[in-house]
């Protein structure tokens, strides 16, 4: 059978859960299909991890300023007027997906190929969605939704007409699918829940490597891994640590990752006077030795579609604390059986941590039960192959 041609759109390959599972997806997919990865920027710690056989195209769009100058120099009056309208909407706070569509449609198709299926793998991204619609030739087009839609209601309404142009919607968990359908009206018959694929053996092997920063043996070591951004909840960590220390609990909380909220997190650490107790380790290409070494893995997210790091910590047999609003986490751990699910608040997380600090038998129960779960997503690739082969 002739190999299908698949395109995957990503903004970049910076370290992060979505990009890591995209790499895993491509590793499996390239065995069956010809895969083209289209990146908006040629940056990221994961660039070297792109599987052999995957064609990479860098699609760096022309900056608006450069486009505007060319239109003026070329006396393209019609475009100059539309450029000004676009710019005024941006400056007056009326920028939205409809406005950005103008910039996207000013660019030619990214590549001449006609694909059997093209995927916006950062499915909540308006930029990737528009580029998929207007700049890719493909028999089928799909989006991969990894979390909840955090846009305001009016923005969701504007995005709905673009989402409805898609042929299929892949969701990383059932709660993620249900939350999306509540905000974006789509045909439920075109939805598929596809659990993220992880390589458990690779995670176990990498966890044996040496740590660059050694954890303290005198404290209970908590760990959080992920992009440092508003929705991930790291802003609660300094206050939780300070209150735990004030109550006599000897804990140190390590944070692996980088992101737009890092400076704010640093400020909160100084405010709570816990710079020796909240340790920022930055980006780690291999976070698994740290996961293996920690006593408790905590995912403090305000919202989370399906946490890759919880899967990784689960494969390593850690006691895990997740949060209630993070719908996908309920697909990953059972509260009280294989982990704790608490309120996404300082009080909720603090109480959960104290419970595990004071009940070593419960921690051991979680460590044993989490190993019984299948976090590797074996066989999930068949869902996608069946979809692209379906006439």
Structure explained in plain terms:
The chain has 391 residues and is α/β, with parallel strands linked by helices. It folds into two domains: 5-61 and 107-197 and 378-389, 3-Layer(aba) Sandwich (Rossmann fold); 200-370, Glycogen Phosphorylase B (Rossmann fold). It is 39% helix and 17% strand. The chain has helices at residues 17-29, 64-73, 77-91, 97-105, 126-135, 153-163, 174-183, 200-206, 237-246, 262-271, 288-293, 308-315, 346-358, 360-370, 381-389, and strands at 5-10, 34-39, 55-58, 114-120, 137-145, 168-171, 191-193, 220-225, 251-256, 278-282, 296-298, 319-323, 340-342. The strands form two sheets. The chain has a seven-stranded parallel β-sheet, with helices on both faces. Strands 10-9-8-11-12-13 form a six-stranded parallel β-sheet, sandwiched between helices. Helix 3 runs antiparallel to helix 4 (97-105) and helix 9 packs across helix 13 (346-358). The longest helix is centred in the first third of the chain and has 15 residues, at 77-91. The relative contact order is 0.11. The mean pLDDT is 94.
């Amino acid at each position: 059978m002739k190999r299908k041609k698949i395109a995957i759109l990503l903004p970049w390959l910076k370290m992060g859960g979505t990009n890591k599972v995209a790499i895993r997806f491509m590793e499996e997919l390239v065995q069956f299909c010809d895969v083209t990865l289209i990146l908006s920027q040629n940056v990221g710690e994961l660039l070297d991890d792109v599987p052999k056989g995957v064609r990479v195209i860098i699609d760096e769009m022309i900056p608006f300023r450069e486009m505007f100058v060319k239109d003026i120099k070329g006396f393209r009056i019609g475009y100059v007027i539309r450029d000004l309208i676009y710019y005024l909407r941006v400056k007056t706070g009326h920028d939205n997906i409809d406005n950005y569509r103008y910039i996207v449609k000013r660019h030619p198709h990214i590549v001449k190929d006609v694909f059997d299926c093209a995927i916006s793998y950062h499915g909540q991204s308006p930029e990737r969605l528009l580029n998929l619609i207007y700049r890719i030739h493909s028999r089928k087009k799909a989006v991969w939704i990894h979390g909840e839609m955090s846009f305001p209601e009016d923005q969701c309404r504007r995005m709905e007409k673009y989402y409805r142009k898609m042929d299929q919607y892949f969701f990383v968990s059932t709660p993620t699918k249900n939350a999306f359908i509540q905000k974006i009206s789509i045909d439920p018959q075109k939805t598929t829940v596809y659990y993220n694929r992880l390589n458990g053996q690779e995670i176990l092997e990498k966890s044996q490597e040496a740590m660059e920063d050694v954890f303290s043996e005198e404290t209970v070591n908590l760990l959080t891994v992920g992009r440092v951004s508003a929705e991930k909840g790291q802003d609660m960590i300094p206050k939780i640590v300070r209150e735990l220390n004030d109550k006599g609990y000897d804990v140190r909380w390590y944070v692996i990752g980088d992101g737009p909220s890092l400076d704010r997190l640093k400020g909160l650490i100084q405010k709570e006077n816990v710079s020796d107790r909240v340790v920022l380790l930055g980006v780690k290409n291999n976070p698994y030795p740290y996961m293996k070494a920690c006593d408790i893995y905590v995912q403090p997210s305000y919202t989370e579609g399906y946490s890759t790091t919880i899967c990784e910590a689960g494969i390593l047999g850690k006691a895990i604390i997740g949060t209630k609003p993070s719908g996908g986490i309920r697909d990953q751990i059972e509260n009280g059986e294989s982990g704790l699910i608490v309120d996404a608040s300082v009080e909720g997380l603090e109480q959960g941590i104290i419970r595990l600090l004071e009940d070593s038998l419960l921690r051991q129960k979680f460590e044993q039960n989490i190993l019984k779960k299948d976090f590797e997503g074996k066989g999930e690739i068949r869902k996608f192959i069946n979809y692209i082969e379906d006439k």
